[in-house]
Amino acid sequence: MAGNLNVIQTANAAAPGGHYSQAVSHGGVVYVSGQLPVRANGEHSADQPFEVQASIALDNLLAILSEAGLGPRDLLKVTVYVVGIEHWPAFDQLYAHYLGDHRPARAVVPVPVLHHGYLIEIEAVARTAHKEPL
To answer: Suppose 129 and one of 9, 28, 53, 106 were both cysteines; which one would form an S-S bond, judging by CB atoms 3.0 to 4.6 Å apart?
Structure first.
């Protein structure tokens, strides 16, 4: 890729299923592509309960951040696509467990359907430059 755009790739999260990267960084920011609840070994989980799917998607997100040398406290913005807004409370509880007291900006967007019949997809933006304390 051109310029200062760096591709971030880890075997600890699901491999991209199309023409995109797990994440890219540029100018002190990491952009994480939407993470479906596909296990790192490629195993699909669309038949699993929502909480299992959400945990897998969050695990993928954190594995990609880790590959970039980052953690949950570096998240700036998270967008969550959820099939069935009734899953929002369960997601919020899991999300709080994964992020602890860190509260990045977030949007939970109800959608009618996601690829392969999944119930959740998570994308995020994180910082690489630690000039501003959280």
So the answer is: 28
pTM above 0.85, yes or no: yes
What is the domain range of residue 70? Answer: 6-127
> For position 59, which CATH number holds?
3.30.1330.40
Segments of the chain assigned E as strands: 6-8, 23-26, 29-35, 75-83, 105-111, 120-127
- For the chain, helix, strand, coil in percent to 5 are 30, 30, 45
Percent of the chain with pLDDT over 70: 93
Candidates 76, 62, 73; CA nearest to 27 is 76
Q: How many domains does the chain have?
A: 1
* CA-only gyration radius of the chain, Å: 14
Residue 4 has pLDDT above 90, yes or no: no
**Does 134 map to a domain?**
no
Q: Is residue 95 part of a domain?
A: yes
Interatomic CA distance for residues 87 and 131, integer angstroms: 36
